[in-house]
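Meet today's protein:

…
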Amino acid sequence: MSTSSLISQDTIIALATSPGANGAIAVIRLSGSQAIQLVNEVFKGKDLNKQESHTIHFGTIRDGDQIIDEVLVSLFKGPNSYTKENVVEISTHNSKYIIERVIGLLIKKGARAAKAGEFTLRAFLNGGMDLSQAEAVADLIASNSAASHQIAIQQMRGGFSNQLQKLREDLVHFASLIELELDFAEEDVEFANRGQLRSLIQQIHSVIAKLIRSFEQGNVLKNGVPVVIAGKPNVGKSTLLNALLNEERAIVSDIAGTTRDTIEDEINIHGVTFRFIDTAGIRDTEDVIEAKGVERTREKMKQARLIIYLFDPTQDQISDIQQQIADVQGLNIPFVTIINKSDLLTEAQKVEFAILNPIYISAKQGLGIEELKDELLNQVNLSNINTEDVMITNIRHVEALQHTQEALEKVLYGIDNPITSDFLAMDIRQALQYLGEITGTVTTDDLLENIFSKFCIGK
């Protein structure tokens, strides 16, 4: 997107509902100064140019005398619309033929096909939301759990933006005083109290540090908790994955080494998404393909947030299991010890294995699965997270906050090791720039293109 395209006054059009989705209705959206006029040219019903904003009208879309479809047309006149421009939404029957005819007809009348994210881009450019709120729109669409939904809603409604705005306002106040000192450099006066500035910088630094720390949990809530299911071959890893998902996702066989590569799928447990990764069994093998699978298993375990490690008490003695546990502990990643095939255990064996503090399950019989789910929630400790708090889920925001911290540390250094006001002002301006990049106060065409190109068409 070039600067000229970013500020384009074209009237854009796109299908706003999911293409190919099963459903009775499709919604076609237009935005731009000519949106109402263009639709009015093909709409048979009331004169849309004379209707009030936020009204719905029944009629037909026609190409000349030919009726394409009976529709409902919703009008949203700018600036009281999503994009702050005139917006029209046409609800048609969900036929690919009808959708293509209506969009093609309106393009012929003068509309232009919208680019990915262009409706939300216009909302940002027209002051309807800042950049972090626009990114939250994409997160909201992609949310697949109660927790990720709540965080996206909170950010879209300006929770994160409001906190950043307060930080910027306080910093701008001191920046203006420092800049004023530059105008009176010859008089050698200080308008900005250095003690108060230090206190403010430390306060802002503390808030930003808390936001950065929130990313680990926020990212988990947004993208799901990566959980690796590991263990020796044929201990029931694939059977457990199928039991957790309640479907035959992985191939189950009595032949050891059946799983040669990782298999991933996810489920939602009490509002938290878990991404389960079934892996190849860990053992020494001369089979080249299986060996690659074992290598990938070890890599996945290092990347996991949590490991479910399965043991088969019919295969291993307790000493063997203790050695495997020691190996897993060396990764410094939380793990859950699972004794599978518990239906085959004697009471004496259960007493023996009790020192491992395991969870007993039978993946094949579906026993202990709910207890395992409860332990997973307990391990990731997300139940204590207040999703009403401001939480970071975007790596771009984290990087900008980290750069802001670095600039603030330079300001503190400048206060403790007195430097001239012009250098102090430069470091404060740098911090303000990084904060501004998050909300879009400071931005570039390349940044906007990168962000909005990831949106779906029609949003």
